[in-house]
Design brief:
Elements lengths: L12 H31 L5 H35 L18 H17 L2 H29 L12 H17 L3 H25 L1 H12 L1
Helix pairs in contact: 2-3, 4-5, 4-6
């Protein structure tokens, strides 16, 4: 998720992103195997305190890096949405010197700080996980839909075995979503309603894709 949200700074995003997507799962698997080994030894009374400290430090560094990357990614997501007309043009502004979405970065940082100060950590973690799973469901389903509705669309990377991979992705994410508590679902539904209100109240009327489609239909 962090890789897919940060394609803008890449020199050759098609090549580098594909390499990142391919190399990330094996790296995560090796890291998880190491953590599970330490936990298993700790459970059986064979764990050394120094090794457990290394795992704690690694977990702290890993979580901090993920949070940092996602904070960097969210302002750029706002910028791309604004470029497509789904958000007001103010979100598309960049710093005249550093060429970064500075206003979006400030908005994201203040918003995250307020959420972290008001809501408990476990609730935010569950909502973040739900949002990620829902995004994965949308992406997997979108790949299958585009394979049918736009088969000739230029693609720099094609998912091998898309029908199996995407179907398995949708089913596995839905299975994990099913285990979430009802209170988290209520908050997610409320958050989704706010997003839909923004889309139907502003984004749908200003969408560049909708305008280009309407203009094409008129010309035809």
């Amino acid at each position: 998720m962090s890789i897919s949200a940060n394609p803008c700074p890449a020199i050759d995003d098609h090549q580098h992103l594909n390499g990142g997507f391919v190399s990330q799962p094996p790296a995560n698997l090796l890291a998880q195997c190491g953590v599970n080994r330490v936990r298993d030894e700790q459970f059986h009374g064979q764990q050394q305190h120094s090794e457990f400290g290394v795992v704690e430090v690694g977990a702290l560094i890993g979580l901090s890096s993920v949070v940092l990357v996602m904070i960097i990614a969210q302002p750029r997501i706002f910028m791309i949405m604004s470029r497509d007309g789904l958000l007001p043009k103010v979100f598309n502004r960049v710093h005249p010197r550093y060429r970064t979405p500075h206003l979006n970065t400030i908005i994201t940082g203040v918003g995250i700080a307020i959420l972290a100060a008001v809501f408990p950590l476990d609730l935010l973690a569950n909502l973040t996980s739900m949002g990620t799973l829902i995004a994965f469901v949308a992406v997997c389903a979108g790949v299958l839909i585009l394979r049918y509705t736009a088969p000739d669309l230029p693609r720099s990377f094609r998912v091998p075995g898309a029908w199996f991979v995407c179907s398995a992705g949708v089913l596995s994410c839905c299975a994990l979503l099913y285990t979430m508590e009802w209170f988290n679902w209520l908050l997610m539904i409320g958050w989704t309603v706010i997003g839909l209100a923004i889309y139907f109240g502003y984004g749908m009327r200003h969408s560049r894709l909708r305008r280009s489609s309407a203009l094409k239909a008129v010309n035809e």
